[in-house]
Amino acid sequence: LVAGPLAGKRVLVTSGPTHEPIDPVRYIANRSSGAQGTAIAAALRDLGAQVVFVTGPAQAARPEGVEVIEVETARQMRAAVLAALPVDAAVFAAAVADWRVASEHLSKIKKTKGALPVLEFTENPDILAEVAQLPEARPRLVVGFAAETDDVVAHATAKRARKGCDWILANDVSPATGIMGGPDNAVVLISDEGAEVWPRMAKAEVAARLAQRIAEALMA
Ligand code: C5P
């Protein structure tokens, strides 16, 4: 029997980057390490939650004691997320690629003298927005992230409204902060109560604090 304030609650966490194929050997990716999402999954588990962890191809070691679903592309992540519903709460920490190559080449693109390949892009599904706006299976609490480099609170507040999620954890990822890929995070929690600035702390502490807040929200 699992004890803790989240015992009996099922929560979903997305994490890591996505890889969007160009051809069988090449892909588009981003620098997400999966560190913050992994820490959040572990913190929710530590409070007793049953955690479904949907991760792209991230460096971070997979958390123990959670259900891990490995995906590669945004479309696979969307399918895995929808299949994991219903959940009580969902945290979207993945850095999902905004675009994918419109027509993936089924064989390797050959190097041809004098002819450069041209890639055309198409938009990926916005998993957070879709889940936050589900008419029936919407989780009670939907949490998104917003990585911003300027006007953090204003941009994140607008993003929260646009996506329809309950909370946005906004972080300043300008290069000078050293947050991207680093051990610390400095976040602002945006909710319908406004913006709450958290001090800079280790990603594990951000995760513990968020998990605690999620527990309080689900108990309310
Ligand atoms: O719009 P933007 O990518 O800045 O929003 C970030 C938030 O939306 C993150 O929580 C991220 O996990 C989520 N997201 C998503 N699916 C996408 C793009 C972003 O779930 N295609």
UniProtKB/TrEMBL annotation:
Its EC number is 4.1.1.36, 6.3.2.5. Residues 11-220 are annotated as: Phosphopantothenate--cysteine ligase. The keyword Lyase applies. It catalyses: (R)-4'-phosphopantothenate + L-cysteine + CTP = N-[(R)-4-phosphopantothenoyl]-L-cysteine + CMP + diphosphate + H(+); N-[(R)-4-phosphopantothenoyl]-L-cysteine + H(+) = (R)-4'-phosphopantetheine + CO2. Its cofactor is Mg(2+); FMN. Binds 1 FMN per subunit. Pathway: Cofactor biosynthesis; coenzyme A biosynthesis; CoA from (R)-pantothenate: step 2/5; Cofactor biosynthesis; coenzyme A biosynthesis; CoA from (R)-pantothenate: step 3/5. GO terms for biological process: coenzyme A biosynthetic process; pantothenate catabolic process. Residues 6-216 form the DNA/pantothenate metabolism flavoprotein C-terminal domain. The keyword Flavoprotein applies. CTP binds at D98, K108, P125, D126, I127, L128, F145, K159, K163. One of its GO terms (molecular function) is phosphopantothenate--cysteine ligase activity. One of its GO terms (cellular component) is phosphopantothenoylcysteine decarboxylase complex. Keywords: Decarboxylase, Flavoprotein, FMN, Ligase, Lyase, Magnesium, Metal-binding, Multifunctional enzyme. In the C-terminal section; belongs to the PPC synthetase family. Catalyzes two sequential steps in the biosynthesis of coenzyme A. In the first step cysteine is conjugated to 4'-phosphopantothenate to form 4-phosphopantothenoylcysteine. In the second step the latter compound is decarboxylated to form 4'-phosphopantotheine. Catalyzes two steps in the biosynthesis of coenzyme A. In the first step cysteine is conjugated to 4'-phosphopantothenate to form 4-phosphopantothenoylcysteine, in the latter compound is decarboxylated to form 4'-phosphopantotheine. This is Coenzyme A biosynthesis bifunctional protein CoaBC. The gene is coaBC.
